[in-house]
Amino acid sequence: MKEPIVQFNDVHKSFGDVKVLKGIDLDINPAEKVAVIGPSGSGKTTIIRMLMTLEEPTSGDIIVDGKNLWKMEKNGKPLRANEKHLRSIRGDIGMVFQHFNLFPHMTILDNCMVAPIHVKKEDKLEVKERAVQMLDRVGLGDKLENYPSQLSGGQKQRVAMARALVMRPKIMLFDEVTSALDPELVGEVLEVIRDIAKNDDMAMVLVTHEMDFALDIADKVLFLDEGVIAEQGTASQVIEHSANERLQTFLHRFRKV
Amino acid sequence: MNYWSWETFADALPFVLQGLGITVGLTITTYLFALIFGFVWTFLRRVPNKPFNWIVTWAMEFIRSTPPLVQLFFIYFAWPMIPVVGVSLSPFQSAVLGLGVHFSTYIGEIYRSGIESVEKGQWEASKALNFSPVDKWRKIILPQALPPTIPMLGNYFIIMFKEVPLASTIGVQGILLMANTYGARHWAYLEPLTIVGIVFLLLSYPSAILIKKLEIKMNTRFDKKTVMDTRVNA
Fold first, then answer.
1. Which of A1, A217, B151, B197 shows the smallest number of beta carbons within 10 Å?
2. Chain B residue closest to A113 (CA)?
3. What is the pLDDT of residues B121-168, one digit of tens each?
4. Could you give the CA distance from residue A158 to residue A232 in angstroms, rounded to a whole number?
5. Domain boundaries, position A16
Protein backbone atom coordinates (compact mmCIF):
# COMPACT_ATOMS: atom_id res chain seq x y z
CA MET A 1 0.00 0.00 0.00
CA LYS A 2 1.29 3.45 -0.87
CA GLU A 3 2.09 6.02 1.78
CA PRO A 4 -0.55 8.73 2.19
CA ILE A 5 0.74 12.16 1.21
CA VAL A 6 -1.32 13.83 3.93
CA GLN A 7 -2.34 12.44 7.29
CA PHE A 8 -4.40 14.09 10.00
CA ASN A 9 -4.02 12.44 13.39
CA ASP A 10 -6.63 13.48 15.94
CA VAL A 11 -6.53 17.12 14.91
CA HIS A 12 -8.48 19.60 17.01
CA LYS A 13 -9.03 23.28 16.40
CA SER A 14 -10.68 25.89 18.58
CA PHE A 15 -11.19 29.56 17.97
CA GLY A 16 -11.37 30.99 21.47
CA ASP A 17 -14.00 28.95 23.25
CA VAL A 18 -15.52 27.64 20.06
CA LYS A 19 -14.44 24.12 19.20
CA VAL A 20 -14.56 23.92 15.44
CA LEU A 21 -12.84 20.59 14.85
CA LYS A 22 -13.05 17.81 17.42
CA GLY A 23 -10.65 15.12 16.38
CA ILE A 24 -10.06 14.74 12.66
CA ASP A 25 -8.38 11.57 11.39
CA LEU A 26 -7.81 11.51 7.69
CA ASP A 27 -5.53 9.99 5.07
CA ILE A 28 -5.10 11.45 1.63
CA ASN A 29 -3.21 9.38 -0.93
CA PRO A 30 -1.09 10.86 -3.69
CA ALA A 31 -3.26 11.79 -6.66
CA GLU A 32 -6.41 11.18 -4.66
CA LYS A 33 -9.31 13.62 -5.20
CA VAL A 34 -11.13 14.33 -1.96
CA ALA A 35 -14.34 16.31 -1.66
CA VAL A 36 -15.31 17.78 1.70
CA ILE A 37 -19.00 18.50 2.12
CA GLY A 38 -21.08 19.51 5.08
CA PRO A 39 -23.20 22.29 6.54
CA SER A 40 -21.83 25.81 6.99
CA GLY A 41 -19.75 26.17 10.11
CA SER A 42 -18.90 22.48 10.23
CA GLY A 43 -15.17 23.23 9.91
CA LYS A 44 -14.64 22.22 6.28
CA THR A 45 -12.57 25.25 5.39
CA THR A 46 -10.59 25.07 8.60
CA ILE A 47 -9.27 21.64 7.60
CA ILE A 48 -7.65 22.90 4.44
CA ARG A 49 -6.58 26.20 6.01
CA MET A 50 -4.57 24.25 8.59
CA LEU A 51 -3.00 22.22 5.80
CA MET A 52 -2.09 25.48 4.00
CA THR A 53 -0.56 26.71 7.31
CA LEU A 54 -3.04 29.59 7.52
CA GLU A 55 -4.37 28.29 10.84
CA GLU A 56 -2.49 26.40 13.50
CA PRO A 57 -4.18 23.33 14.97
CA THR A 58 -4.93 23.43 18.68
CA SER A 59 -3.73 19.84 19.02
CA GLY A 60 -2.96 16.79 16.93
CA ASP A 61 -0.57 16.17 14.06
CA ILE A 62 -0.72 16.92 10.38
CA ILE A 63 1.82 14.88 8.42
CA VAL A 64 2.68 16.00 4.91
CA ASP A 65 4.82 13.65 2.86
CA GLY A 66 6.21 12.10 6.03
CA LYS A 67 6.99 15.42 7.75
CA ASN A 68 5.12 16.84 10.71
CA LEU A 69 3.78 20.16 9.45
CA TRP A 70 3.22 22.06 12.68
CA LYS A 71 5.92 20.50 14.85
CA MET A 72 9.67 20.32 14.53
CA GLU A 73 12.59 19.03 16.51
CA LYS A 74 15.63 20.91 17.63
CA ASN A 75 18.40 19.02 19.41
CA GLY A 76 15.95 16.23 20.02
CA LYS A 77 13.42 18.53 21.66
CA PRO A 78 9.96 18.88 20.15
CA LEU A 79 9.12 22.47 19.26
CA ARG A 80 6.35 24.44 17.65
CA ALA A 81 7.11 24.85 13.95
CA ASN A 82 8.79 28.11 12.99
CA GLU A 83 8.36 29.92 9.69
CA LYS A 84 11.42 28.22 8.20
CA HIS A 85 10.06 24.78 8.96
CA LEU A 86 6.64 25.67 7.56
CA ARG A 87 8.22 27.08 4.41
CA SER A 88 10.16 23.89 3.81
CA ILE A 89 6.90 21.91 3.60
CA ARG A 90 4.45 24.51 2.31
CA GLY A 91 6.00 24.44 -1.16
CA ASP A 92 4.28 21.10 -1.81
CA ILE A 93 0.86 22.64 -1.26
CA GLY A 94 -1.14 25.06 -3.40
CA MET A 95 -4.43 26.72 -2.72
CA VAL A 96 -7.25 28.41 -4.61
CA PHE A 97 -9.32 30.80 -2.52
CA GLN A 98 -12.97 31.69 -2.46
CA HIS A 99 -12.17 35.34 -3.21
CA PHE A 100 -9.39 34.61 -5.74
CA ASN A 101 -6.82 36.84 -3.98
CA LEU A 102 -5.04 37.72 -7.18
CA PHE A 103 -2.38 40.41 -6.88
CA PRO A 104 -4.13 43.52 -8.19
CA HIS A 105 -0.93 45.42 -9.01
CA MET A 106 0.32 42.80 -11.47
CA THR A 107 -0.82 41.59 -14.87
CA ILE A 108 -2.27 38.11 -14.85
CA LEU A 109 0.90 36.79 -16.47
CA ASP A 110 2.99 38.32 -13.67
CA ASN A 111 0.54 36.91 -11.15
CA CYS A 112 1.47 33.47 -12.44
CA MET A 113 5.20 34.15 -12.74
CA VAL A 114 6.10 35.98 -9.55
CA ALA A 115 6.15 32.99 -7.20
CA PRO A 116 8.05 30.48 -9.38
CA ILE A 117 10.69 33.12 -10.08
CA HIS A 118 11.10 34.53 -6.59
CA VAL A 119 10.16 31.58 -4.42
CA LYS A 120 11.45 28.65 -6.42
CA LYS A 121 14.21 30.65 -8.14
CA GLU A 122 13.36 29.12 -11.49
CA ASP A 123 14.53 30.39 -14.84
CA LYS A 124 12.45 33.33 -15.99
CA LEU A 125 12.00 32.22 -19.59
CA GLU A 126 11.09 28.71 -18.61
CA VAL A 127 8.56 30.02 -16.09
CA LYS A 128 7.07 32.37 -18.63
CA GLU A 129 6.58 29.56 -21.09
CA ARG A 130 4.89 27.45 -18.45
CA ALA A 131 2.71 30.33 -17.22
CA VAL A 132 1.53 31.17 -20.72
CA GLN A 133 0.80 27.50 -21.33
CA MET A 134 -1.17 27.28 -18.09
CA LEU A 135 -3.16 30.45 -18.76
CA ASP A 136 -3.89 29.07 -22.19
CA ARG A 137 -5.13 25.89 -20.63
CA VAL A 138 -7.60 27.77 -18.41
CA GLY A 139 -8.76 29.73 -21.46
CA LEU A 140 -7.11 33.07 -20.76
CA GLY A 141 -4.23 32.99 -23.21
CA ASP A 142 -5.49 36.21 -24.79
CA LYS A 143 -5.52 38.19 -21.53
CA LEU A 144 -1.90 37.87 -20.45
CA GLU A 145 -1.30 41.60 -20.10
CA ASN A 146 -4.63 42.40 -18.46
CA TYR A 147 -4.93 43.32 -14.80
CA PRO A 148 -7.21 41.38 -12.47
CA SER A 149 -9.58 44.35 -12.17
CA GLN A 150 -10.36 43.95 -15.87
CA LEU A 151 -11.55 40.36 -15.53
CA SER A 152 -14.82 38.74 -14.51
CA GLY A 153 -15.01 36.67 -11.35
CA GLY A 154 -14.87 33.42 -13.29
CA GLN A 155 -11.83 34.59 -15.21
CA LYS A 156 -10.12 35.69 -12.01
CA GLN A 157 -10.70 32.31 -10.45
CA ARG A 158 -9.26 30.57 -13.50
CA VAL A 159 -6.16 32.78 -13.25
CA ALA A 160 -5.90 31.84 -9.58
CA MET A 161 -5.89 28.18 -10.55
CA ALA A 162 -3.24 28.71 -13.20
CA ARG A 163 -1.17 30.62 -10.64
CA ALA A 164 -1.32 27.71 -8.22
CA LEU A 165 -0.64 25.11 -10.92
CA VAL A 166 2.49 26.84 -12.20
CA MET A 167 4.01 26.12 -8.79
CA ARG A 168 3.55 22.37 -9.45
CA PRO A 169 2.22 21.47 -6.01
CA LYS A 170 1.76 17.87 -4.91
CA ILE A 171 -1.48 18.83 -3.17
CA MET A 172 -4.02 21.37 -4.38
CA LEU A 173 -6.63 22.83 -2.07
CA PHE A 174 -9.85 24.43 -3.32
CA ASP A 175 -11.71 26.54 -0.79
CA GLU A 176 -15.29 27.01 -1.98
CA VAL A 177 -13.91 28.39 -5.20
CA THR A 178 -17.28 28.97 -6.84
CA SER A 179 -19.12 30.46 -3.85
CA ALA A 180 -18.28 34.07 -4.69
CA LEU A 181 -19.20 33.76 -8.35
CA ASP A 182 -22.32 34.74 -10.23
CA PRO A 183 -24.23 31.57 -11.11
CA GLU A 184 -23.53 31.85 -14.84
CA LEU A 185 -19.78 31.87 -14.20
CA VAL A 186 -19.67 28.75 -12.05
CA GLY A 187 -19.60 26.36 -14.98
CA GLU A 188 -16.41 27.65 -16.57
CA VAL A 189 -14.54 27.31 -13.28
CA LEU A 190 -15.83 23.80 -12.64
CA GLU A 191 -14.74 22.78 -16.13
CA VAL A 192 -11.17 23.80 -15.32
CA ILE A 193 -11.23 21.86 -12.07
CA ARG A 194 -12.59 18.82 -13.88
CA ASP A 195 -9.78 19.13 -16.39
CA ILE A 196 -7.17 19.33 -13.62
CA ALA A 197 -8.70 16.40 -11.77
CA LYS A 198 -8.66 14.29 -14.89
CA ASN A 199 -5.23 15.13 -16.25
CA ASP A 200 -2.97 16.06 -13.33
CA ASP A 201 -1.67 13.55 -10.85
CA MET A 202 -1.62 15.75 -7.78
CA ALA A 203 -3.81 15.16 -4.76
CA MET A 204 -6.80 17.50 -4.55
CA VAL A 205 -8.99 18.54 -1.67
CA LEU A 206 -12.16 20.39 -2.59
CA VAL A 207 -14.31 22.14 -0.06
CA THR A 208 -17.46 22.77 -1.97
CA HIS A 209 -21.18 23.28 -2.09
CA GLU A 210 -21.34 22.06 -5.68
CA MET A 211 -22.60 18.69 -4.58
CA ASP A 212 -23.17 16.92 -7.89
CA PHE A 213 -19.87 18.13 -9.24
CA ALA A 214 -17.95 17.02 -6.15
CA LEU A 215 -19.51 13.59 -6.20
CA ASP A 216 -18.73 13.29 -9.86
CA ILE A 217 -14.99 13.90 -9.67
CA ALA A 218 -14.12 12.79 -6.13
CA ASP A 219 -12.47 9.47 -5.28
CA LYS A 220 -13.42 10.03 -1.69
CA VAL A 221 -16.13 12.12 -0.07
CA LEU A 222 -16.00 13.36 3.51
CA PHE A 223 -19.13 14.52 5.24
CA LEU A 224 -18.15 16.89 7.99
CA ASP A 225 -20.66 17.58 10.70
CA GLU A 226 -20.26 19.37 14.01
CA GLY A 227 -16.48 19.20 13.91
CA VAL A 228 -16.03 15.52 13.10
CA ILE A 229 -15.93 13.44 9.95
CA ALA A 230 -19.37 11.90 10.25
CA GLU A 231 -19.13 9.82 7.12
CA GLN A 232 -16.49 8.99 4.55
CA GLY A 233 -16.12 6.74 1.56
CA THR A 234 -16.58 6.73 -2.19
CA ALA A 235 -19.25 8.98 -3.59
CA SER A 236 -21.76 6.23 -4.01
CA GLN A 237 -21.08 4.80 -0.54
CA VAL A 238 -21.62 8.16 1.08
CA ILE A 239 -24.54 9.36 -0.97
CA GLU A 240 -26.57 6.32 -1.69
CA HIS A 241 -25.83 3.92 1.08
CA SER A 242 -25.24 6.01 4.12
CA ALA A 243 -27.58 5.56 7.03
CA ASN A 244 -26.45 8.81 8.56
CA GLU A 245 -29.59 10.77 9.09
CA ARG A 246 -28.02 14.20 9.21
CA LEU A 247 -26.21 13.50 5.95
CA GLN A 248 -29.46 12.47 4.30
CA THR A 249 -31.16 15.64 5.58
CA PHE A 250 -28.23 17.71 4.38
CA LEU A 251 -28.28 16.15 0.91
CA HIS A 252 -32.01 16.34 0.70
CA ARG A 253 -31.97 20.07 1.46
CA PHE A 254 -29.32 20.56 -1.20
CA ARG A 255 -31.10 18.60 -3.88
CA LYS A 256 -34.29 20.54 -3.31
CA VAL A 257 -32.70 23.96 -3.78
CA MET B 1 4.78 104.96 3.53
CA ASN B 2 8.04 105.48 5.32
CA TYR B 3 7.87 102.32 7.37
CA TRP B 4 8.36 100.22 4.24
CA SER B 5 11.43 100.66 2.09
CA TRP B 6 11.95 98.94 -1.23
CA GLU B 7 15.60 99.80 -0.84
CA THR B 8 15.81 97.77 2.35
CA PHE B 9 13.80 95.05 0.66
CA ALA B 10 16.29 94.87 -2.21
CA ASP B 11 19.17 94.94 0.22
CA ALA B 12 17.76 92.25 2.48
CA LEU B 13 16.68 89.91 -0.33
CA PRO B 14 20.09 88.44 -1.28
CA PHE B 15 21.07 88.26 2.37
CA VAL B 16 17.97 86.33 3.41
CA LEU B 17 18.14 84.06 0.36
CA GLN B 18 21.59 82.94 1.46
CA GLY B 19 19.67 80.78 3.91
CA LEU B 20 17.41 79.23 1.28
CA GLY B 21 19.79 76.38 0.51
CA ILE B 22 19.92 75.44 4.19
CA THR B 23 16.14 75.67 4.63
CA VAL B 24 15.40 73.54 1.59
CA GLY B 25 18.32 71.20 2.31
CA LEU B 26 17.21 70.72 5.90
CA THR B 27 13.63 70.04 4.79
CA ILE B 28 14.69 67.39 2.31
CA THR B 29 17.21 65.73 4.62
CA THR B 30 14.76 65.69 7.51
CA TYR B 31 12.01 64.37 5.28
CA LEU B 32 14.15 61.53 3.96
CA PHE B 33 15.18 60.72 7.51
CA ALA B 34 11.53 60.68 8.59
CA LEU B 35 10.52 58.50 5.61
CA ILE B 36 13.14 55.91 6.51
CA PHE B 37 12.68 56.10 10.25
CA GLY B 38 8.92 55.84 9.77
CA PHE B 39 9.51 52.32 8.48
CA VAL B 40 11.47 51.51 11.60
CA TRP B 41 8.46 52.45 13.76
CA THR B 42 6.08 50.54 11.53
CA PHE B 43 8.09 47.35 11.71
CA LEU B 44 8.91 47.70 15.41
CA ARG B 45 5.18 47.90 16.06
CA ARG B 46 4.64 44.69 14.16
CA VAL B 47 7.01 42.65 16.34
CA PRO B 48 4.75 40.02 17.89
CA ASN B 49 5.69 40.67 21.49
CA LYS B 50 3.17 42.38 23.78
CA PRO B 51 5.51 44.21 26.23
CA PHE B 52 7.83 45.30 23.44
CA ASN B 53 4.85 46.53 21.45
CA TRP B 54 3.59 48.47 24.41
CA ILE B 55 6.96 50.18 24.81
CA VAL B 56 7.12 51.14 21.14
CA THR B 57 3.56 52.48 21.11
CA TRP B 58 4.24 54.44 24.26
CA ALA B 59 7.48 55.88 22.87
CA MET B 60 5.67 57.04 19.72
CA GLU B 61 2.94 58.58 21.81
CA PHE B 62 5.51 60.38 23.95
CA ILE B 63 7.34 61.81 20.95
CA ARG B 64 4.11 62.98 19.36
CA SER B 65 2.74 64.52 22.52
CA THR B 66 5.75 66.71 23.27
CA PRO B 67 6.45 69.86 21.24
CA PRO B 68 9.11 69.50 18.54
CA LEU B 69 10.69 72.71 19.84
CA VAL B 70 11.27 71.14 23.24
CA GLN B 71 12.73 68.06 21.56
CA LEU B 72 15.09 70.24 19.54
CA PHE B 73 16.26 72.07 22.64
CA PHE B 74 16.74 68.80 24.44
CA ILE B 75 18.81 67.24 21.67
CA TYR B 76 20.91 70.35 21.11
CA PHE B 77 21.36 71.71 24.64
CA ALA B 78 20.58 68.95 27.12
CA TRP B 79 21.70 65.71 25.48
CA PRO B 80 25.44 66.63 25.37
CA MET B 81 25.35 67.17 29.13
CA ILE B 82 24.27 63.62 29.91
CA PRO B 83 27.31 61.56 30.92
CA VAL B 84 28.28 58.51 28.81
CA VAL B 85 25.39 58.59 26.33
CA GLY B 86 25.58 62.32 25.68
CA VAL B 87 26.49 63.31 22.13
CA SER B 88 27.16 66.81 20.89
CA LEU B 89 25.63 67.44 17.47
CA SER B 90 25.82 70.42 15.12
CA PRO B 91 22.66 72.56 14.85
CA PHE B 92 21.87 71.04 11.45
CA GLN B 93 22.35 67.47 12.69
CA SER B 94 20.26 68.18 15.78
CA ALA B 95 17.47 69.56 13.62
CA VAL B 96 17.49 66.55 11.30
CA LEU B 97 17.41 64.19 14.25
CA GLY B 98 14.84 66.11 16.30
CA LEU B 99 12.38 67.02 13.56
CA GLY B 100 13.05 63.79 11.67
CA VAL B 101 12.21 61.57 14.63
CA HIS B 102 9.21 63.72 15.55
CA PHE B 103 7.69 63.50 12.10
CA SER B 104 8.69 59.88 11.59
CA THR B 105 6.10 58.92 14.20
CA TYR B 106 3.38 60.46 12.02
CA ILE B 107 4.81 58.96 8.87
CA GLY B 108 5.00 55.57 10.56
CA GLU B 109 1.26 55.83 11.20
CA ILE B 110 0.68 56.63 7.52
CA TYR B 111 2.61 53.53 6.50
CA ARG B 112 0.62 51.53 8.99
CA SER B 113 -2.70 52.68 7.56
CA GLY B 114 -1.43 51.77 4.09
CA ILE B 115 -0.37 48.31 5.21
CA GLU B 116 -3.64 47.73 7.02
CA SER B 117 -5.54 48.63 3.88
CA VAL B 118 -4.05 45.63 2.08
CA GLU B 119 -6.66 42.88 2.13
CA LYS B 120 -6.20 39.83 4.32
CA GLY B 121 -6.46 37.63 1.24
CA GLN B 122 -3.25 39.12 -0.14
CA TRP B 123 -1.33 37.97 2.93
CA GLU B 124 -2.87 34.53 2.67
CA ALA B 125 -2.09 34.24 -1.03
CA SER B 126 1.53 35.23 -0.31
CA LYS B 127 1.68 32.47 2.24
CA ALA B 128 0.03 29.92 -0.02
CA LEU B 129 2.61 30.70 -2.70
CA ASN B 130 5.31 30.26 -0.07
CA PHE B 131 6.93 33.70 -0.35
CA SER B 132 9.80 34.45 1.99
CA PRO B 133 8.97 37.23 4.47
CA VAL B 134 11.23 39.67 2.59
CA ASP B 135 9.73 38.89 -0.84
CA LYS B 136 6.23 39.05 0.61
CA TRP B 137 6.82 42.63 1.69
CA ARG B 138 8.84 43.62 -1.35
CA LYS B 139 6.69 42.06 -4.05
CA ILE B 140 3.18 41.90 -2.65
CA ILE B 141 2.44 44.04 0.39
CA LEU B 142 4.39 47.28 -0.03
CA PRO B 143 3.60 47.76 -3.74
CA GLN B 144 -0.06 47.80 -2.70
CA ALA B 145 0.31 49.59 0.62
CA LEU B 146 2.48 52.52 -0.42
CA PRO B 147 0.90 54.12 -3.52
CA PRO B 148 -2.30 55.13 -1.68
CA THR B 149 -0.19 56.85 1.00
CA ILE B 150 1.71 59.07 -1.44
CA PRO B 151 -0.69 62.05 -1.21
CA MET B 152 -0.61 61.92 2.59
CA LEU B 153 3.16 61.65 2.60
CA GLY B 154 3.24 64.65 0.27
CA ASN B 155 1.14 66.66 2.70
CA TYR B 156 3.61 65.88 5.44
CA PHE B 157 6.40 67.21 3.26
CA ILE B 158 4.69 70.59 3.20
CA ILE B 159 3.84 70.49 6.89
CA MET B 160 7.47 69.71 7.68
CA PHE B 161 8.72 72.44 5.38
CA LYS B 162 6.74 74.89 7.47
CA GLU B 163 8.10 73.48 10.75
CA VAL B 164 11.72 73.64 9.68
CA PRO B 165 12.13 77.30 10.78
CA LEU B 166 12.00 75.96 14.34
CA ALA B 167 15.60 75.01 13.71
CA SER B 168 16.53 78.70 13.70
CA THR B 169 16.15 78.60 17.48
CA ILE B 170 19.18 76.38 17.79
CA GLY B 171 21.18 78.34 15.25
CA VAL B 172 20.49 76.66 11.89
CA GLN B 173 21.06 79.45 9.40
CA GLY B 174 18.00 79.06 7.25
CA ILE B 175 16.04 81.97 5.81
CA LEU B 176 14.32 82.81 9.09
CA LEU B 177 17.53 83.16 11.05
CA MET B 178 19.07 85.14 8.19
CA ALA B 179 16.08 87.50 8.23
CA ASN B 180 16.35 87.86 11.96
CA THR B 181 20.06 88.57 11.74
CA TYR B 182 19.44 91.18 9.06
CA GLY B 183 16.76 92.76 11.20
CA ALA B 184 18.96 92.97 14.24
CA ARG B 185 21.82 94.48 12.29
CA HIS B 186 19.82 97.15 10.49
CA TRP B 187 16.92 97.48 12.88
CA ALA B 188 14.61 96.61 9.99
CA TYR B 189 12.47 93.51 10.47
CA LEU B 190 9.50 94.22 8.26
CA GLU B 191 11.16 93.70 4.89
CA PRO B 192 13.30 90.63 5.65
CA LEU B 193 10.48 88.82 7.45
CA THR B 194 8.11 89.66 4.62
CA ILE B 195 10.62 88.05 2.28
CA VAL B 196 10.59 84.92 4.43
CA GLY B 197 6.81 84.79 4.23
CA ILE B 198 6.83 85.21 0.46
CA VAL B 199 9.49 82.51 -0.01
CA PHE B 200 7.47 80.02 2.03
CA LEU B 201 4.33 80.88 0.11
CA LEU B 202 6.08 80.56 -3.24
CA LEU B 203 7.45 77.16 -2.35
CA SER B 204 4.63 75.54 -0.44
CA TYR B 205 1.63 76.68 -2.49
CA PRO B 206 2.75 75.11 -5.79
CA SER B 207 3.76 71.98 -3.88
CA ALA B 208 0.29 71.82 -2.39
CA ILE B 209 -1.27 72.05 -5.85
CA LEU B 210 1.07 69.36 -7.12
CA ILE B 211 0.10 67.06 -4.29
CA LYS B 212 -3.59 67.70 -4.89
CA LYS B 213 -3.10 66.64 -8.50
CA LEU B 214 -1.20 63.57 -7.41
CA GLU B 215 -4.05 62.70 -5.07
CA ILE B 216 -6.64 62.90 -7.83
CA LYS B 217 -4.42 60.76 -10.03
CA MET B 218 -4.00 58.15 -7.30
CA ASN B 219 -7.71 58.02 -6.60
CA THR B 220 -8.59 57.32 -10.20
CA ARG B 221 -5.63 55.09 -10.96
CA PHE B 222 -7.41 51.77 -11.21
CA ASP B 223 -10.57 53.19 -12.78
CA LYS B 224 -8.58 54.93 -15.48
CA LYS B 225 -6.86 51.75 -16.45
CA THR B 226 -10.21 50.08 -16.97
CA VAL B 227 -11.62 53.02 -18.89
CA MET B 228 -8.63 53.16 -21.19
CA ASP B 229 -8.82 49.46 -21.82
CA THR B 230 -12.47 49.41 -22.82
CA ARG B 231 -11.68 52.17 -25.26
CA VAL B 232 -8.94 50.03 -26.81
CA ASN B 233 -11.25 47.05 -27.06
CA ALA B 234 -14.02 49.09 -28.60
1. A1
2. B129
3. 999 999 999 999 999 999 999 999 998 898 899 999 999 999 999 999
4. 29
5. 1-59+171-256
Chain A residues with beta carbon closer than 8 angstroms to that of B121: 97, 99-101
Indicate whether A183 belongs to any domain. yes
What is the pLDDT at residue B233? 38
d(CA B47, CA B40): 11
Amino acid symbol at B164: V
Number of domains in chain A: 1
No. of helices (H) and no. of strands (E), chain B: 12, 0
Q: What is the pLDDT of residues A84-95, one digit of tens each?
A: 999 999 999 999
- Chain A hits for B134, Cβ within 8 Å: none
> Domain segments of chain B: what residues?
1-19+173-234, 22-172
A99 Cβ under 8 Å from any chain B Cβ: yes
Is B229 near chain A, with CB under 8 Å?
yes
CATH number, domain containing residue A42: 3.40.50.300
* Structure confidence by residue, pLDDT tens digits, A125-175: 999 999 999 999 999 999 999 999 999 999 999 999 999 999 999 999 999
Q: Do A119 and B132 touch (CB under 8 A)?
A: yes
Look at B125 and A103 and tell me if their CB atoms are within 8 Å.
yes
Q: What CATH number was assigned to the domain covering residues B22-172?
A: 1.10.3720.10
Closest CB to B130 among A90, A97, A147: A90
Q: Is A75 on the interface with B (CB under 8 A)?
A: no
Nearest C-alpha in A relative to B142: A105
Write out residues 100-139 of A within 8 Å (CB-CB) of B.
Answer: 100-105, 114-115, 118-119
Asked if residue A125 is part of any domain, the answer here is no
pLDDT < 50 positions in chain B: 223-234
How buried is residue A31: exposed, middle or buried, by Cβ count under 10 Å (0-12/13-18/19+)?
middle
Are A120 and A147 in contact, with CB atoms under 8 Å apart? no
To probe the interface with B, which of A118, A172, A173, A176 has the most B CB atoms within 10 Å?
A118
- Per-residue DSSP letter, A113: H
* pLDDT, tens only, A92-117: 999 999 999 999 999 999 999 999 99
Whole-angstrom distance, CA of residue B161 vs CA of residue B101: 15
